[in-house]
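Why predict the complex rather than its parts? Because the way molecules touch one another can change local conformation, and only a joint prediction can capture that. The input here totals 972 residues.
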Amino acid sequence: MSDRVRVTVWNEFRHERHNAEVAKVYPEGIHRALQAGLSAYGFDIGTATLDEPEHGLTADRLNDTDVLVWWGHQAHDEVDDAIVERVQQRVLQGMGLIVLHSGHYSKIFRKLMGTSCALKWREADEKERLWVVKPSHPIAAGLPEYFELEREEMYGEHFDIPDPDELVFVSWFEGGEVFRSGATFSRGQGKIFYFRPGHETYPTYYNEPVLRVIANAVRWAASERGAAPFYGNAQPLEPIAGK
Amino acid sequence: MSDRVRVTVWNEFRHERHNAEVAKVYPEGIHRALQAGLSAYGFDIGTATLDEPEHGLTADRLNDTDVLVWWGHQAHDEVDDAIVERVQQRVLQGMGLIVLHSGHYSKIFRKLMGTSCALKWREADEKERLWVVKPSHPIAAGLPEYFELEREEMYGEHFDIPDPDELVFVSWFEGGEVFRSGATFSRGQGKIFYFRPGHETYPTYYNEPVLRVIANAVRWAASERGAAPFYGNAQPLEPIAGK
Amino acid sequence: MSDRVRVTVWNEFRHERHNAEVAKVYPEGIHRALQAGLSAYGFDIGTATLDEPEHGLTADRLNDTDVLVWWGHQAHDEVDDAIVERVQQRVLQGMGLIVLHSGHYSKIFRKLMGTSCALKWREADEKERLWVVKPSHPIAAGLPEYFELEREEMYGEHFDIPDPDELVFVSWFEGGEVFRSGATFSRGQGKIFYFRPGHETYPTYYNEPVLRVIANAVRWAASERGAAPFYGNAQPLEPIAGK
Amino acid sequence: MSDRVRVTVWNEFRHERHNAEVAKVYPEGIHRALQAGLSAYGFDIGTATLDEPEHGLTADRLNDTDVLVWWGHQAHDEVDDAIVERVQQRVLQGMGLIVLHSGHYSKIFRKLMGTSCALKWREADEKERLWVVKPSHPIAAGLPEYFELEREEMYGEHFDIPDPDELVFVSWFEGGEVFRSGATFSRGQGKIFYFRPGHETYPTYYNEPVLRVIANAVRWAASERGAAPFYGNAQPLEPIAGK
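Output of the joint prediction:
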């Protein structure tokens, strides 16, 4: 038995099959690009996509996943509510979840956040510069104090998320906005990281610092945790007066 | 037009009508006890209950509410999903929400938290002592460093909530448990406070420090806020190179 | 006796007396500009400056101050350590503290933060745009979702502060940086707000949104709080087995 | 060159030499007990004590330390301010710091927190039960949902610290108090963990869950981080209008 982290990269995988511009950037799909790019980091990486049975996310598959990476965009509504519920339960039990880019509007992210997860956006080939605001965080490991993406979609504040547990990156955009682009959350025993970059028409997931961030986040989210708590009717641990 | 804070106290109002023990403590219902107890604080206070049409929470009613106080227990499942959605939207737009005691398991609280909101519990007439752990917080205004409830239901950790924005109270229980019993959250433009005490068989909502906490929380949650953000496709504020 | 918030605006007051460019912008000093600008908000506002005896911060003066506003820059080292200690003690007892701009490097702010409070800076007449990232916060009350300063000194990340309790503003700068420009902290019973804008050569403290932020912060920091805790050797509140 | 984490356990080492009761529990000193107890976890562990030259904390020694563990009690005032400053600088540069028990009142902890770090205490042989309140945290790895110490000194709230980044443990005490007994902070590039248990008259540092917590915290604090930021006068990264 391996002690390697077991990662499942989930991708909607529609743009790449129906849009020539996207197919040129990601001919085998964003999930394959991520699988290849993360392979250097020593994880066991599988993939799953929307149009597979149960979206590729059977109970067995989720039980064998330490960290799930999620990319979706135009078909959030086609993700079955029962599967979303299943993923949420696994997160609460301890599976890590890395939500990428337009996944901010996925059912699973909104369900775990409790907010609209709305934001500003613009497709204008503008420069993004990601600044590290918490250099002590393991998700910033090995990164310079900032890194740049020459062209990306803009996401701007206000980003309607709960206050993150920890804020790791803030983005600067050429057109005048800022964005909390790397943020951690915990839900139940599970750890969640939202990471902004990755519009489907740009080669963002071939970028080394971007892959490093995702790999760091996978390791962070896969770390060992405490015992599953008991919930429900509990016996007293100490004597109660008059009993 | 008044600038008084407009409060709606929502109560399931079932125990009080069907259980003689509870009726003795709250003959007119928990909502009436809270309405009376909070009246000294200068709010405009209305009530709403589960068995009213739309549970008393029409769109107009919610639009005229600055802060909603929520008590529910045995009939969480009977709250209509469409009304829960309506309340969530109003919270995201800025309505305050104070969730009391067994309301931890209400649909609205779980929806806003994204977790199971599960916990340990025990009905054993035990003493609860609430310690202030953030004395600078306005919800602690005017309180001593701790206060006691002679008999309450026990709620124990682990409490499956996201990390609070701010933790104001931690409870000690006679039987050996601790609990994060006063916790703040923000969701969208709305502020949320969870407050633990208030089992239906105890006269908790006649207790002065308990009422003071709820009144403080109402004021805190009703405070003025920033403008509603624009979400969606945004024009650039600065020139973008090559455009 | 008034229940108005008692504010003391502390200013180093050196640039304005020795630099003609600054004197043109703030002929009577930054403290007088702030006193005038905040007067519309209904506070009792006094001032104090470095070259007064005890820097104008006698024990009596601090005891009569609900919220202290701090601007300093070139003479941080001339602030007496004993006065810094006195201010820290008052903050821990509940006095609010609003630290402005170059006050990030003041002895009092570094002492309360425990970090270097270092940052990047540049004087280049560049545009700053402040985005509200927590619109539910009372410090954002009445503000639009962003506001601009046509020319300011740049402050850039990494800003070496502890993680704020709450992050209210993030700045975008024309030259390519971002900055956590509005951040809250609590220390003891005192509330602290750091607010970035205010280089001495720009008319920043005549700007309406800037004044509104400072006024909001004063109100937030002056709010009532819980009782002063007892520290030290404590008697048991419950029987201890075998005693 | 090893990639093992390099730990230095610092101990005041006075009680053990001058108090027979303590010497019986820790005949070679608390630092030796910790060194032995942590040895199973695969760290390179050295020790340092107050009465060594420079308290055993030379610049070279600190530069070769990834994580410093600190126990002190009766002689906090004898720790040289210059050494405290040196330790603080190393923390800001990325050295981890684990502060144990009465170390809450050490100069280094107070300097990094900015508060009094005061608390309630009582020596009465009472039971402490530590509850995990953030089971997703790596410091809780491998722990049950609570663990007990049959006899310990009581520490009670209010504990005058800044709001922790993350709260991992809350203690219940037999005599009626609660305490935030495991709390994380970050300062600069360094990570800090405060852990409550460890009064010198009890065999706490032979307890397996206690050692596990400290070992988990060492690993957490030693994790790789982002690049050292540049602080100071910075060149623009983007063109500034009119320049």
